Protein backbone atom coordinates (compact mmCIF):
# COMPACT_ATOMS: atom_id res chain seq x y z
CA UNK A 1 0.00 0.00 0.00
CA UNK A 2 1.35 3.42 -0.94
CA UNK A 3 1.85 6.12 1.67
CA UNK A 4 -1.00 8.18 0.20
CA UNK A 5 -3.49 5.30 0.32
CA UNK A 6 -2.44 4.50 3.89
CA UNK A 7 -3.03 8.15 4.84
CA UNK A 8 -6.50 8.01 3.26
CA UNK A 9 -7.36 4.80 5.16
CA UNK A 10 -6.27 6.28 8.47
CA UNK A 11 -8.28 9.42 7.71
CA UNK A 12 -11.44 7.37 7.07
CA UNK A 13 -11.24 5.61 10.43
CA UNK A 14 -10.44 8.92 12.11
CA UNK A 15 -13.52 10.52 10.54
CA UNK A 16 -15.80 7.79 11.92
CA UNK A 17 -14.34 8.26 15.41
CA UNK A 18 -14.78 12.03 15.17
CA UNK A 19 -18.41 11.50 14.08
CA UNK A 20 -19.18 9.34 17.12
CA UNK A 21 -17.54 11.95 19.37
CA UNK A 22 -19.55 14.78 17.77
CA UNK A 23 -22.83 12.94 18.31
CA UNK A 24 -21.91 12.26 21.95
CA UNK A 25 -21.07 15.95 22.44
CA UNK A 26 -24.31 17.09 20.81
CA UNK A 27 -26.42 14.84 23.05
CA UNK A 28 -24.51 16.03 26.11
CA UNK A 29 -24.97 19.66 25.05
CA UNK A 30 -28.72 19.13 24.69
CA UNK A 31 -28.96 17.61 28.19
CA UNK A 32 -26.90 20.31 29.86
CA UNK A 33 -28.91 23.02 28.10
CA UNK A 34 -32.17 21.45 29.34
CA UNK A 35 -30.86 21.29 32.90
CA UNK A 36 -29.34 24.77 32.76
CA UNK A 37 -25.86 23.41 33.46
CA UNK A 38 -22.82 25.51 32.63
CA UNK A 39 -20.00 24.43 30.37
CA UNK A 40 -17.59 23.66 33.17
CA UNK A 41 -20.09 21.53 35.06
CA UNK A 42 -20.19 18.94 32.28
CA UNK A 43 -16.47 18.21 32.78
CA UNK A 44 -17.43 15.95 35.66
CA UNK A 45 -19.78 13.75 33.62
CA UNK A 46 -18.89 10.37 32.19
CA UNK A 47 -20.39 11.27 28.81
CA UNK A 48 -17.99 14.18 28.45
CA UNK A 49 -14.93 12.03 29.10
CA UNK A 50 -16.24 9.38 26.71
CA UNK A 51 -16.36 12.02 23.98
CA UNK A 52 -12.85 13.13 24.96
CA UNK A 53 -11.58 9.56 24.54
CA UNK A 54 -13.22 9.31 21.11
CA UNK A 55 -11.76 12.65 20.06
CA UNK A 56 -8.32 11.65 21.33
CA UNK A 57 -8.41 8.36 19.42
CA UNK A 58 -9.52 10.14 16.27
CA UNK A 59 -6.77 12.73 16.73
CA UNK A 60 -4.09 10.03 17.04
CA UNK A 61 -5.26 8.46 13.79
CA UNK A 62 -5.25 11.89 12.20
CA UNK A 63 -1.68 12.49 13.37
CA UNK A 64 -0.62 9.20 11.83
CA UNK A 65 -2.33 10.14 8.57
CA UNK A 66 -0.45 13.45 8.51
CA UNK A 67 2.80 11.51 8.74
CA UNK A 68 2.03 9.73 5.44
CA UNK A 69 0.02 12.34 3.52
CA UNK A 70 0.13 16.10 2.84
CA UNK A 71 -1.93 18.53 4.88
CA UNK A 72 -4.10 19.60 1.93
CA UNK A 73 -5.04 15.95 1.29
CA UNK A 74 -5.66 14.69 4.82
CA UNK A 75 -7.65 17.67 6.13
CA UNK A 76 -10.48 17.66 3.54
CA UNK A 77 -11.05 13.94 4.21
CA UNK A 78 -12.34 15.00 7.60
CA UNK A 79 -15.53 15.97 5.73
CA UNK A 80 -16.50 12.31 5.95
CA UNK A 81 -17.21 13.01 9.62
CA UNK A 82 -20.33 14.81 8.44
CA UNK A 83 -21.44 11.80 6.37
CA UNK A 84 -21.39 9.56 9.43
CA UNK A 85 -22.49 12.03 12.10
CA UNK A 86 -25.72 13.39 10.56
CA UNK A 87 -27.49 9.99 10.14
CA UNK A 88 -26.00 8.67 13.38
CA UNK A 89 -27.24 11.69 15.33
CA UNK A 90 -30.70 11.41 13.77
CA UNK A 91 -30.92 7.71 14.64
CA UNK A 92 -29.96 8.29 18.26
CA UNK A 93 -32.52 11.11 18.45
CA UNK A 94 -35.19 8.68 17.20
CA UNK A 95 -35.99 10.43 13.92
CA UNK A 96 -35.25 10.16 10.22
CA UNK A 97 -32.74 12.32 8.39
CA UNK A 98 -34.70 15.02 6.60
CA UNK A 99 -34.40 15.74 2.88
CA UNK A 100 -32.95 19.17 3.70
CA UNK A 101 -30.25 17.55 5.85
CA UNK A 102 -29.35 15.15 3.04
CA UNK A 103 -29.10 18.02 0.54
CA UNK A 104 -27.05 20.11 2.93
CA UNK A 105 -24.70 17.22 3.64
CA UNK A 106 -24.34 16.43 -0.07
CA UNK A 107 -23.57 20.04 -1.01
CA UNK A 108 -21.04 20.40 1.81
CA UNK A 109 -19.29 17.20 0.79
CA UNK A 110 -19.35 18.13 -2.89
CA UNK A 111 -17.76 21.47 -2.10
CA UNK A 112 -15.06 19.93 0.05
CA UNK A 113 -14.54 17.26 -2.61
CA UNK A 114 -13.76 20.01 -5.12
CA UNK A 115 -11.14 21.34 -2.71
CA UNK A 116 -9.77 17.80 -2.31
CA UNK A 117 -9.31 17.42 -6.07
CA UNK A 118 -7.03 20.44 -6.11
CA UNK A 119 -4.93 19.17 -3.18
CA UNK A 120 -1.20 19.08 -3.75
CA UNK A 121 1.37 16.37 -3.31
CA UNK A 122 4.02 16.35 -0.58
CA UNK A 123 5.16 19.82 0.43
CA UNK A 124 8.76 20.93 -0.15
CA UNK A 125 8.93 22.11 3.46
CA UNK A 126 6.57 20.19 5.76
CA UNK A 127 7.51 21.87 9.06
CA UNK A 128 7.04 25.34 10.51
CA UNK A 129 9.92 27.16 12.15
CA UNK A 130 9.42 28.24 15.75
CA UNK A 131 8.82 31.93 14.83
CA UNK A 132 6.31 30.84 12.17
CA UNK A 133 4.51 28.59 14.65
CA UNK A 134 4.31 31.39 17.22
CA UNK A 135 3.04 33.85 14.61
CA UNK A 136 0.35 31.39 13.49
CA UNK A 137 -0.66 30.76 17.11
CA UNK A 138 -0.96 34.48 17.87
CA UNK A 139 -3.03 35.25 14.77
CA UNK A 140 -5.27 32.25 15.43
CA UNK A 141 -5.84 33.20 19.07
CA UNK A 142 -6.86 36.72 18.03
CA UNK A 143 -9.27 35.36 15.40
CA UNK A 144 -10.82 32.87 17.82
CA UNK A 145 -11.28 35.67 20.37
CA UNK A 146 -13.12 37.77 17.80
CA UNK A 147 -15.38 34.88 16.80
CA UNK A 148 -16.18 33.96 20.41
CA UNK A 149 -17.58 37.35 21.36
CA UNK A 150 -21.25 37.68 22.25
CA UNK A 151 -23.66 38.33 19.42
CA UNK A 152 -25.96 36.73 16.87
CA UNK A 153 -25.50 33.12 15.69
CA UNK A 154 -23.19 32.03 18.52
CA UNK A 155 -23.43 28.39 17.46
CA UNK A 156 -22.00 28.96 13.98
CA UNK A 157 -19.38 31.42 15.21
CA UNK A 158 -18.20 29.03 17.92
CA UNK A 159 -18.20 26.21 15.35
CA UNK A 160 -16.06 28.31 13.00
CA UNK A 161 -13.65 29.08 15.82
CA UNK A 162 -13.54 25.39 16.73
CA UNK A 163 -12.77 24.39 13.15
CA UNK A 164 -10.01 26.99 12.87
CA UNK A 165 -8.48 25.87 16.17
CA UNK A 166 -8.55 22.22 15.08
CA UNK A 167 -7.11 23.02 11.64
CA UNK A 168 -4.25 25.00 13.13
CA UNK A 169 -3.64 22.23 15.67
CA UNK A 170 -3.36 19.76 12.78
CA UNK A 171 -0.89 21.97 10.94
CA UNK A 172 1.22 22.34 14.08
CA UNK A 173 0.91 18.60 14.75
CA UNK A 174 2.51 17.89 11.39
CA UNK A 175 5.45 20.06 12.44
CA UNK A 176 5.79 18.22 15.78
CA UNK A 177 5.52 14.79 14.15
CA UNK A 178 8.13 15.47 11.47
CA UNK A 179 10.49 17.27 13.85
CA UNK A 180 10.19 14.56 16.52
CA UNK A 181 10.90 11.76 14.05
CA UNK A 182 13.81 13.59 12.42
CA UNK A 183 16.88 11.83 13.75
CA UNK A 184 19.15 14.71 12.81
CA UNK A 185 18.13 16.68 15.91
CA UNK A 186 17.27 16.03 19.58
CA UNK A 187 13.82 14.63 20.37
CA UNK A 188 13.08 17.26 23.02
CA UNK A 189 14.24 20.24 21.01
CA UNK A 190 12.72 23.62 22.01
CA UNK A 191 10.80 23.72 18.72
CA UNK A 192 9.15 20.36 19.45
CA UNK A 193 8.24 21.23 23.06
CA UNK A 194 6.80 24.68 22.35
CA UNK A 195 4.82 23.57 19.29
CA UNK A 196 3.52 20.50 21.17
CA UNK A 197 2.17 22.80 23.91
CA UNK A 198 0.50 24.95 21.26
CA UNK A 199 -1.08 21.82 19.74
CA UNK A 200 -2.48 20.80 23.14
CA UNK A 201 -3.88 24.30 23.74
CA UNK A 202 -5.60 24.59 20.36
CA UNK A 203 -6.91 21.01 20.47
CA UNK A 204 -8.47 21.55 23.91
CA UNK A 205 -9.85 24.94 22.86
CA UNK A 206 -11.38 23.45 19.72
CA UNK A 207 -13.05 20.73 21.78
CA UNK A 208 -14.61 23.18 24.24
CA UNK A 209 -15.72 25.53 21.46
CA UNK A 210 -17.43 22.69 19.60
CA UNK A 211 -19.21 21.63 22.79
CA UNK A 212 -20.67 25.13 23.04
CA UNK A 213 -21.56 25.19 19.34
CA UNK A 214 -23.49 21.90 19.50
CA UNK A 215 -26.04 23.38 21.90
CA UNK A 216 -27.86 24.63 18.80
CA UNK A 217 -27.94 21.20 17.15
CA UNK A 218 -25.49 18.99 15.28
CA UNK A 219 -25.82 19.48 11.51
CA UNK A 220 -24.90 23.12 10.85
CA UNK A 221 -22.24 23.50 13.58
CA UNK A 222 -20.55 20.24 12.57
CA UNK A 223 -20.65 21.28 8.91
CA UNK A 224 -19.03 24.60 9.82
CA UNK A 225 -16.35 22.85 11.88
CA UNK A 226 -15.76 20.46 8.97
CA UNK A 227 -15.49 23.37 6.52
CA UNK A 228 -13.34 25.72 8.63
CA UNK A 229 -10.88 22.97 9.62
CA UNK A 230 -9.39 22.20 6.16
CA UNK A 231 -9.62 25.83 5.08
CA UNK A 232 -7.46 26.93 8.04
CA UNK A 233 -5.01 24.10 7.43
CA UNK A 234 -4.89 24.84 3.70
CA UNK A 235 -4.08 28.51 4.35
CA UNK A 236 -1.08 27.45 6.44
CA UNK A 237 -0.05 24.79 3.94
CA UNK A 238 -0.23 27.14 0.97
CA UNK A 239 1.33 30.18 2.63
CA UNK A 240 4.01 28.65 4.85
CA UNK A 241 4.66 25.01 3.91
CA UNK A 242 5.08 25.44 0.17
CA UNK A 243 2.02 23.37 -0.75
CA UNK A 244 0.05 24.43 -3.79
CA UNK A 245 -3.30 23.85 -5.48
CA UNK A 246 -3.16 21.71 -8.60
CA UNK A 247 -4.52 22.95 -11.91
CA UNK A 248 -3.35 26.55 -11.79
CA UNK A 249 -6.11 29.07 -12.45
CA UNK A 250 -8.63 26.29 -13.19
CA UNK A 251 -7.81 24.62 -9.90
CA UNK A 252 -8.26 27.89 -8.05
CA UNK A 253 -11.64 28.39 -9.72
CA UNK A 254 -12.66 24.84 -8.80
CA UNK A 255 -11.66 25.40 -5.18
CA UNK A 256 -13.66 28.64 -5.12
CA UNK A 257 -16.73 26.91 -6.56
CA UNK A 258 -16.32 24.18 -3.96
CA UNK A 259 -16.27 26.76 -1.19
CA UNK A 260 -19.54 28.24 -2.49
CA UNK A 261 -21.20 24.81 -2.61
CA UNK A 262 -20.01 23.98 0.89
CA UNK A 263 -21.32 27.30 2.22
CA UNK A 264 -24.71 26.58 0.66
CA UNK A 265 -24.71 23.18 2.33
CA UNK A 266 -24.04 24.74 5.72
CA UNK A 267 -26.95 27.15 5.19
CA UNK A 268 -29.27 24.22 4.47
CA UNK A 269 -28.06 22.38 7.56
CA UNK A 270 -29.00 25.36 9.72
CA UNK A 271 -32.60 24.32 9.02
CA UNK A 272 -32.05 20.97 10.72
CA UNK A 273 -34.50 20.07 13.51
CA UNK A 274 -33.46 21.33 16.90
CA UNK A 275 -32.24 18.67 19.34
CA UNK A 276 -35.08 17.12 21.31
CA UNK A 277 -35.23 17.58 25.05
CA UNK A 278 -33.59 14.85 27.03
CA UNK A 279 -36.11 12.34 28.47
CA UNK A 280 -34.49 12.68 31.87
CA UNK A 281 -34.61 16.45 31.93
CA UNK A 282 -36.69 18.02 34.66
CA UNK A 283 -39.16 20.66 33.59
CA UNK A 284 -39.91 23.15 36.34
CA UNK A 285 -43.40 24.57 36.49
CA UNK A 286 -44.72 27.25 38.78
CA UNK A 287 -48.02 26.76 40.60
CA UNK A 288 -50.92 28.79 39.29
CA UNK A 289 -51.51 32.00 41.22
CA UNK A 290 -55.21 32.50 41.97
CA UNK A 291 -56.70 35.64 40.53
CA UNK A 292 -57.17 38.44 43.05
CA UNK A 293 -60.73 39.75 43.39
CA UNK A 294 -61.45 43.20 42.12
CA UNK A 295 -61.88 45.60 45.12
CA UNK A 296 -64.75 47.37 43.35
CA UNK A 297 -66.67 44.12 42.96
CA UNK A 298 -66.23 43.40 46.68
CA UNK A 299 -67.71 46.82 47.50
CA UNK A 300 -70.75 46.12 45.30
CA UNK A 301 -71.31 42.73 46.95
CA UNK A 302 -71.10 44.25 50.42
CA UNK A 303 -73.69 46.85 49.57
UniProtKB/TrEMBL annotation:
Membrane spanning residue stretches: 48-66, 73-93, 128-147, 159-181, 187-210, 222-242, 248-269
Phylogenetic placement of the source organism: Bacteria, Bacillati, Actinomycetota, Actinomycetes, Kitasatosporales
Keywords for this protein: Membrane, Signal, Transmembrane, Transmembrane helix
Name recorded for this polypeptide: DMT family transporter
Domain of life: Bacteria
Cleavable signal peptide: 1-19
